[in-house]
Amino acid sequence: MESVRNVNSKVLIATVALYGWLKVAQDLMNRKDSEDRAVCPAKETWLDDKSSAWENTSVETCTILSWLGYGQEIIQARRDAYREFGKLLTARQCGEATLIITGSKGEGLSSFLESDVDQMIVNNKVFCLEDDVKSCAFPGEITVLRSLSRKSYHGHCRLLLERRGTTIQRHVHDAFCDDGYGREILSSDLYVNNWSNVEGLTEGIVQHERAGPSIPSTVRGHMHHDKVHALHYYCPNILSKWAARPRHWPPTEVVQYVVSLGAFLTPIGFKGSEYQHVEWRVCFNAGEIELISNLNDTQTKLYVLLKMIKNDVLHPRKKEVSSYTLKNIVLWMAENNPQSSFHKKSILQWLHEALDALRVALITLELPYYMIPERNLIATSGLDEEQQRTWISTITDMLNEGPKMILRLPKIRKSLIAHPEPFRWYSGRRIELELLWIMRMNRVAICMDENGEVDFTDAILQALCRRIDEITTDVCVRMIMEGSRVINADDIGVRILMENVNDDQ
I want to staple 25 with a disulfide (CB 3.0 to 4.6 A). Which of 17, 228, 264, 432 is the partner? Predict the structure, then answer.
């Protein structure tokens, strides 16, 4: 627990700093009445077919997205909080593993309960090396594996045992099998199953059926987690090839930092491969979080709008089009175009471009992975012909609608017809409530001992809980005054925290 105490002071500073983000919520509630028009513009602004409508509607869309919880300040607050949460969880591993909060939570693009908390747990006792990388630099207790990419699809590999560490974890040891040529190979299937057996023993957590490389679980009935147990992958050739591309974005220093963050291998093979049960997929979660963090405000909101379209218009059944697909479209657009062209007056033009790119990808069934372009993200999407035709037709209709297409999104449409004062009041309460729960999450981790017991007498923790109760009560009272029926205040609080777009990865 000493390592936990060593980071407590830093995390406490970050937790206290989050109080500063509460000003965001206060600002939302204290805007002047003259700004109401920016929240709920005149109907004719949205229905005008003239070229100026694109710019006007773009500006109003950006304003509404900020009110809905997608402003730069709240997004950065989420990112900072989940980064610190990952550090706290890592400290509890005592050097055995590094934990990274990935997905929409790590990117700061989802509210507290609206989507799963994706955790990548990276084993620090096993390192995987690309060809031509020497293993002598690693200490003897580290197990070293060599990637074998021949006969595997782009972005996938098999892992041959090169050197067994002096201390090897059981779930790693039991995942080795023979490759048919007398060599030991680490099975991705066995690795996930071994970890699944360990995760299933945790009291108070309901574990669900394995989903690809992840082990889903639910805590307290509404807190959903997806854990992926991954391995470090040292692949300088892949990363240097990505870094050497000519680009408008990101800047050189960000490119270098992304390279320094390295890569990981997740236990999932290429669908349909004869080696699927022993293959691993190359991913760059830490680097991709950094890339998303370096998008400007318009690019970030473009990504949010695409995810809304996926959930509210396309309704994919089996992740044939995922948030990951859309993220790659945005990253390619950011790399290939000047940053100055992405501004609040142009977001709908870029949404038009992004939807056209998605339409082309659905027609051709090709979308290159941003980090490894040779890997086609739609190659194994499972998209059937009927779904393909329907989506192409829907997207084509949206493109023909011009700026009116934004009215297909329920969140945007409801925000337009909402009265400015209650909309502003509720948005401020919701954002403050979310920030308080994020602070509480980190504070609980700080106040937890090695046995998992939390010191609920902590003064900061009690103050956070009191303010959470106050805001929830305020919302319930207002709902009653406006004629709504409130049965359970806790349920109301949960529903507030689950709002915005439901996400998947």
Answer: 432
Q: What is the C-alpha separation between 331 and 207, in angstroms, rounded?
A: 34
Task: Characterize the bridge pairing of strands 176-178 and 156-163.
Answer: unpaired
Phi, psi for residue 320 in degrees, rounded to 5: -60, -35
* Secondary structure of 219-252 in HEC code, one letter for each residue: ECCCEEEEEEEEEEEECHHHHHHHHCCCCCCCCH
Written as six digits, the tokens of 15 are 């937790």
pLDDT digits (tens, 9 = 90+) for 163-179: 999 989 999 999 999 99
> Is 109 within 8 Å of 505 (Cβ atoms)?
no
Q: How confident is the model at residue 454 (pLDDT cuts 50, 70, 90)?
A: very high
| The amino acid at 492 | I
Contact present, 99 and 89 (Cβ < 8 Å):
yes
| pLDDT score at 202 | 61
Q: Between the CA of residue 381 and those of 118, 377, 384, what are the distances in Å?
A: 21, 7, 9
Tokens 């920030």 locate to: 435
Cis peptide, bond prior to residue 403, ω within 30 of zero: no
pLDDT digit string (tens) for 197-210? Answer: 876 556 667 888 88
Asked whether the beta carbons of 99 and 113 are under 8 A apart, the reply is no
User: What is the 8-class DSSP label of residue 503?
Assistant: -
Report the alpha-carbon distance of residue 241 to residue 263 in Å, rounded: 13
| Tally of CB atoms within 10 A around 272 | 9
Q: Measured between alpha carbons, how far is 103 from 101 in angstroms, rounded to an integer?
A: 7
Instruction: Give the residue ranges of DSSP H helices in 108-217.
Output: 170-173, 188-199
Asked if residues 285 and 120 have their Cβ atoms less than 8 Å apart, the reply is yes
pLDDT digits over 341-355, tens only? 999 999 999 999 999
Which residue spans within 132-183 are E strands per DSSP? Answer: 143-148, 156-163, 176-178
- List Cβ neighbours of 20 (8 Å cut-off, separation of 6 or more): none
User: Given a cut of 90, is residue 496 above it in pLDDT?
Assistant: no
User: Could you write out the three-class secondary structure of 357-384?
Assistant: HHHHHHHHCCCECCCCCCCECCCCCCCC
Radius of gyration over alpha carbons of the chain, in Å? 24
Cα–Cα distance measured from residue 499 to residue 111, given in angstroms and rounded to the nearest whole number: 7
| 64 in Cβ contact with 409 (< 8 Å) | no
pLDDT tens, position by position, 292-335: 999 999 999 999 999 999 999 999 988 899 999 999 999 999 99
CA distance 423 to 28: 10
Can you tell me the distance from the alpha carbon of 186 to that of 129, in angstroms, rounded to the nearest whole number?
13
pLDDT at 224 over 90: no
Greatest CA separation for the chain: 76
